[in-house]
Recover the amino acids of this structure.
């Protein structure tokens, strides 16, 4: 009898040192170019959110991407307790109460976490009704995604990431009660250093004009639906009584009106 395995993950687990390795890659020339594009788009997105608490979940060193937000209380969550991280925690088990976060930013968390479904469920739990989720991920339908196809199985970054399709993530958000508000994409250059990007600057210009939704990364903005509670009537409740209307004969009503008019004229 062929029994299925119990301990089987639908996603490939990244190496244990992925957090530090990704933080080092972000400090490189291609990583800084990618972050510059992300900051530019987030400056127009985060300014729209208001509230009391904003949280950013990062992989490795927490790049401060919440500066454009007007929310004062900003928390940076990451697994290793390093500089820039105010709360050391797993994104799949956030140390926040239910319905306590107004804005939550996932910076490539779904690309590297063991179970992205669990991360999204935890995000839904912590967001307040009407709270905003901003999700950043690598775009498989891009020049970077095409380059990754030739490096499948590579242990180098960023090709180790999952590159989840935006449509797939959108379906997950809909199941969890998060309504998608918009989609943005950016960074159309090849994953090269500054000299190589300047040499192939034509790809950047063509990408902005011809395939604006096919950048190296995408940003999804979703909002948690507010639950509408309708009180249920008891099973054996009596039917609601309509207001009683006492009929008054028309002639009697006219005599009463004439009497009131005569008394008013005498006074």
């Amino acid at each position: 009898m062929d029994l299925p395995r119990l301990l089987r993950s639908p996603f490939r687990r990244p190496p244990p040192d992925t957090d530090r390795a990704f933080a080092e890659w972000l400090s490189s020339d291609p990583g800084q170019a990618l972050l510059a594009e992300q900051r530019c788009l987030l400056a127009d997105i985060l300014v729209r959110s208001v509230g009391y608490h904003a949280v950013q979940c990062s992989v490795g060193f927490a790049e401060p991407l919440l500066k454009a937000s007007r929310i004062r209380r900003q928390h940076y969550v990451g697994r290793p307790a390093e500089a820039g991280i105010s709360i050391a925690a797993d994104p799949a088990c956030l140390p926040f109460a239910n319905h306590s976060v107004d804005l939550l930013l996932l910076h490539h968390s779904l690309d590297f976490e063991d179970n992205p479904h669990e991360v999204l469920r935890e995000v839904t739990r912590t967001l307040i009704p009407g709270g905003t989720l901003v999700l950043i991920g690598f775009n498989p339908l891009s020049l970077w995604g095409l380059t990754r196809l030739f490096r499948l199985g590579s242990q180098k970054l960023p090709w180790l990431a999952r590159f989840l399709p935006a449509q797939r993530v959108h379906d997950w958000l809909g199941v969890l009660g998060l309504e998608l508000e918009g989609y943005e994409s950016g960074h159309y250059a090849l994953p090269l250093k500054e000299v190589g990007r300047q040499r192939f600057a034509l790809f950047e210009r063509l990408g902005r004009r011809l395939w604006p939704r096919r950048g190296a990364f995408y940003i999804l903005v979703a909002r948690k639906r507010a639950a509408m509670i309708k009180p249920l009537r008891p099973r054996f409740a009596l039917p609601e009584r309509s207001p009683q209307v006492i009929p008054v004969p028309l002639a009697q009503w006219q005599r009463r009106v004439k009497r009131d008019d005569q008394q008013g004229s005498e006074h």
Notes: The mean pLDDT is 82.
